[in-house]
Amino acid sequence: MGSKRTTSRRSWSEPGLRARLVALMDTVFPGVNDVIERARALGAAWEDVTTPFVASTEDGPVSQVSVMRFTMLLDGTQADVGCLHAVCTHPGHRRKGHYASAMRAALAFCDERYPAALLCTAQPELYEPFGFRVVDEHKVVSDVAARFDRRSMRPLRLAEARDRAVFQRLASRRAPLSRKLGVTGPATVFVVNEPDRPLVYAEDLDAIVSMEIAGDPLCLYDVVAAELPPLDEILRRLPAPVRRVELFACPDGVGLAGGAEPHVFVDGDDALGGAGASRLMVRGPFPEGPLMLPRPFRC
Ligand SMILES: CC(C)(COP(=O)(O)OP(=O)(O)OC[C@H]1O[C@@H](n2cnc3c(N)ncnc32)[C@H](O)[C@@H]1OP(=O)(O)O)[C@@H](O)C(=O)NCCC(=O)NCCS
After folding, report:
1. Ligand 1 touching residue 273 (CB < 6 A)
2. Domains in the chain: boundaries
3. What region holds the N-acetyltransferase domain (predicted)?
4. What is the pLDDT of residues 70-118, one digit of tens each?
5. What is the assigned CATH class of domain 141-262?
6. Ligand 1 in contact with 32 (CB < 6 A)?
């Protein structure tokens, strides 16, 4: 097996590279190729939004760290943030420093462009040596006494062309869900993460809502709209009244007054990156106090 390493920023459009990188990722995260292809069929091309940093030996690519540009609002200020993801080394090439080399290249790229970088992981110890720190996350929980008058809200399915057009129109001009920590793009990540999760569309509000209702409470994950509707308007359109709302985001955008409770997303065995607690890690300046990176933007 080859041992001489070169590490550099690469491009998905290089002849032959795409197949090799996808094969590498699919070896480490079985099923990722299907996820990428499915998102592409839904109008969201992975290659358009991610930059790979690749360590190669004579055998070809053996490790990669990819970077996406998240457009965010942090403490009320527009900021581009580097999101690191798809971190992997081929099982036959581990513990030889390939990941560390790809990571250094990715961080040099980020440091030139972005004031901060973030990632989600079940293995914080891999990233602490590179300056990342775990940020505790909080959901916001509140009792609500909502009016309830069955205004319409219908399921939205990204697999259907009509609904995809609605999503693309709104995602391209979406308001941040929070001014403290809001993510407005890339929409590709939403399409990769959310197609099998319940989404609803309120036509009169022109808003897509990512939410789950298992009796009480209502779990609210995201709202994709050019103008965020008041929470009350969402509640009055539910199929049944709820008395409690759990918001998995900062509450300023939807105007929810409630208590912050620590929350850790726990991925199941079916998660691409494997089961475990998904912790938000950041590097560089980041808002303080209770916050959460919304579920559609975790990768
Ligand atoms: C995690 C992974 C990318 C590491 O790749 P690698 O090329 O073997 O890593 P390196 O040799 O560059 O290791 C660099 C440092 O990372 C840490 N590290 C690497 N593998 C580790 C492991 N299995 N457990 C704990 N720390 C580890 C060590 O600090 C290591 O430094 P050291 O060798 O001097 O002790 C690789 O094991 C992998 O692909 N795992 C499966 C996918 C995965 O878990 N990705 C991260 C998802 S968030």
Report:
1. yes
2. 6-138+267-297, 141-262
3. 7-154
4. 999 999 999 999 999 999 999 999 999 999 999 999 999 999 999 999 9
5. alpha beta
6. no
